[in-house]
Amino acid sequence: MALIKTENLTLSYENMTVIKDMSFEVNSGDYLCIVGENGSGKSTLVKALLSLKKPVDGSITFGDGLLRREIGYLPQQTNAQRDFPASVSEVVISGCLNSRGIRPFYSPREREIAAENMERLGITELKKRSYRDLSGGQQQRVLLARALCATKKLLLLDEPVSGLDPMVTAELYELISSINKSGVTVIMVTHDMSAALNYASHVLCMTEDNWFFGSLDDFVASDAAAFMKGGAVRG
Amino acid sequence: MGEIIAEMFSAPVLVRALIVGVLVSLCAALLGVSLVLKRYSMIGDGLSHVGFGALAVATVMNLAPMAVAIPVVILAAFLLLRLSSNGKIKGDAAIALISTSALAIGVMAVSMSSGMNVDINSYLFGSIISVSGGDVVISVILALAVLLMFVFFYTKIFAITFDESFAKATGTNANLYNMLIALLTAVTIVIGMRLMGSMLISSLIIFPALCSMRVFRSFKSVTICSAVISVATFVIGMFISYIADTPCGASIVCVNIVFFVIFFVIGAVMSRSRKA
């Protein structure tokens, strides 16, 4: 069964239909890139996948025992966050909140999960540092570690490399790819066509009035890829 | 020194003001950390103006001031929260709109009742004498509510303050906690307003958080430090106001300014030595 399946999904943003009759499915282990123009409804789709927005029509179903609050989400950074006084470990462990109900303090088990994920992303030595003193790439790693605390199955990344320099961008892509290979399904919204072509197993390409979904090979052969020319150079 | 303190504690008015002030400072500082970090500092300022309007109207109409002001300010807090997140009118403009309107209505109400003995000065800049026994009871209850909420929901407050979209995505009811914070802020402001004055009350929310953010770098240490600074500046300010016979609210804000400068300098020295 698919991890996420949308059927005839129709979504609107401020009373304008931005997505019409969209159907696609994501299976365990997939790496789906969502590419598309500004205003094509990518952010609206992300909100719908996170159950923060109700579909006008159609449905989104979760399979394989995926719970709605078990999506490891990496939102776009806000300005307020960049100078937020919080230690790295405070940020990472806040990813464990979804599984804990109303208990007021973190359990030793949750501290362990946070420590494991910091180790996994190579930020253990930063753990006492303040989030606002970190570089952009380090901050994204911290947020990624937090997202991994919230999930074992699915990461949803919203423009994870925006504002990062090329070196750090490449490192982050490799990291995401290795997380994907360890069995975590990845959905990534990106403007970066070359990343989609290099790493994705599937592509969802959205334009203002149309959409394409298929495996990477299908996408490369399709009209959609030709349409998205600009950055569509393989390799 | 000891004599002056003993003298202060022998006056019931001063003891009441001290109890209310310490509790309100504590609450304002805890709520303030979250408000400042979420860029909602101006909400405190807007609410205090609404509080002034409500108090003035209530006095003119001979109603119990607190019974009118608390619900009106709570309503305004929810309204401002909605406006800032909905974005038809942008948050800062919405706050300016509401606070000046409330101020104007308050001034109109006071001027129309010109036969009555309304001391507009004490509304605007606070007065110790206006703190009643009822205020003490309400502020003790409020302080307990804020402290309990902070301890119990600390992890969730951190999560929604740091990243509301992530918190929402992982199933935290961010709107509920935002409303709770707005509600407690509204009550804190109304109670503190009598003592600090509606023009100065928002300093209790903003200063301690800004001071501690200069020096401390984790959410927990910023929160604890804000609470300590807030209570300390209040007590020092009140003491100065008693000795020098200066207005209580303004004295406290001045002590806060001094603290801010000190913390600013410490922060600058620390960040320089970190870079070196």
Q: How would you describe the overall organization of this protein?
A:
The complex is a heterodimer of chains A (235) and B (276). Chain A is α/β, with parallel strands linked by helices. Helix content of chain A is 34%, strand content 25%. Chain A folds into two domains: 1-66 and 153-235, Rossmann fold, CATH 3.40.50.300; 78-151, no CATH class. In chain A, helix 4 crosses helix 5 (136-150). Chain A is globular, with a radius of gyration of 18 Å. Helices cover 83% and strands 0% of the residues of chain B. Chain B has helices spanning 2-9, 12-37, 41-60, 65-86, 91-112, 120-125, 133-152, 154-162, 164-169, 174-196, 202-215, 219-244, 248-275.
What descriptors fit this protein?
heterodimer, A: 235 residues, alpha/beta, Rossmann fold, 2 domains, six-stranded mixed beta sheet, three-stranded antiparallel beta sheet, 25% strand, globular, disordered C terminus, B: 276 residues, mainly alpha, ABC transporter involved in vitamin B12 uptake, BtuC, 13 helices, 83% helix
Q: Tell me which protein chains meet in the greatest interface and how many residues each side has.
A: A-B, 34 and 30 residues
Specify the structural class of chain A. Answer: alpha/beta
Reported for the largest beta sheet of chain B, the result is: none
Instruction: Please tell me the overall pLDDT of chain B.
Output: 87
Q: What number of domains of chain B?
A: 1
- The total count of helices of chain B amounts to 13
The level-1 CATH class of chain B: Mainly Alpha
Radius of gyration of chain B: 19 Å
How big is the Rg of chain A?
Answer: 18 Å
The domain tally of chain A reads: 2
Name the poorly predicted regions of chain A: 231-235
What characteristic shape of chain B results from the CA principal axes? globular
CATH architecture heading of chain B: Orthogonal Bundle
Shape of chain A: globular
**What is the number of strand segments of chain B?**
0
CATH-defined fold name of the largest domain in chain A:
Rossmann fold
